[in-house]
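Input sequence (331 aa), recorded before submission:
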Amino acid sequence: MRRREFLTASTGTTAAVVAPGLVSRPTAVGSSDVIRLRSGLDALMALDASRGGHEGLERAALSGAAEALDKQKQAASQRIRQRLFSVAADYTATAAWSAIDARQLDRARSHLDRALYLAGMAKDAVAELRVWNSYAMLAHQRDDYTQAVDAGYAAQATAIARRDPLYGSLAHARTALGHSNLGDRRAALRSLGYAQEAMGKASFDEPRPSWVSFYGPAELTAITAIVRDRIGDSAEAEAASHQALSAIPDQFRRNRALATARLALAQLHQRDIDQACSTASTVFELMAGNPIPGRMRSLLGDYYRDLIAFAPSATVAREWGDRYRSEWSRA
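Predicted structure, token format:
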């Protein structure tokens, strides 16, 4: 065979063997994939702000986490791998938060354990703080108030809480709630003071993940209302609730409904039965068109129990109870 013919034949054979491998080789995962996955998180957080936690949101979040973990195996660099672990941690924490809001507590704990592991793999202090914040809320739902305080302190110890006053404020506010549930008035007010001091130093121009967009002066005021009511300062709690509702953005419909329920409780604890029932009925109107999340159902149940205790024979109490039972059955 002549040399030119041999080279041509060899080149063709080599191309035939190598080309299929080049076509089928997976494309390296890079920043654009991370950005795309992050945008999916933003969409889920917008849904949560409007409707609250539910199984569909939880499943979507777990699917996003699975995709991020699958992508990290194909990451173009270690930096991209860590960013994808961070995305997976946030998706898993979102699933946990949805389960907390729906009061699926065992599933929430499992998701949080996983999210904390992923946050460690990502070396992501923001995700770590988010998980501890959710651990504190889960402990509250389990009536384990000492653990809620411990989770609040763990959130305070994260690097981001020490570096960014907004996150520090959130950690102190969560700790204040735990102290108030334990009946420790002095500790609750001290932690609340730290949260307010840190909020005064926070900058709102810095880029932050969408999950923390709920927290700002309005939400801190709503938390202040809860703390005040739990330590027996119902008049101060009512004032703080009104202030919070004047500032919580409309898109945070679930948070507005929760703050409204807290306002009703503060009014009820001052024995203003008619006004409290009127306020509590507004919660159903705010959530019209969507099922009431489990956490909100539990709060309304607390309101109803107190209502029966304070005014068992009042007509307005019986009427509100009828509405409560009707709304409770909504799918």
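Checked by second reader. DSSP finds 16 helices and no strands in the chain.
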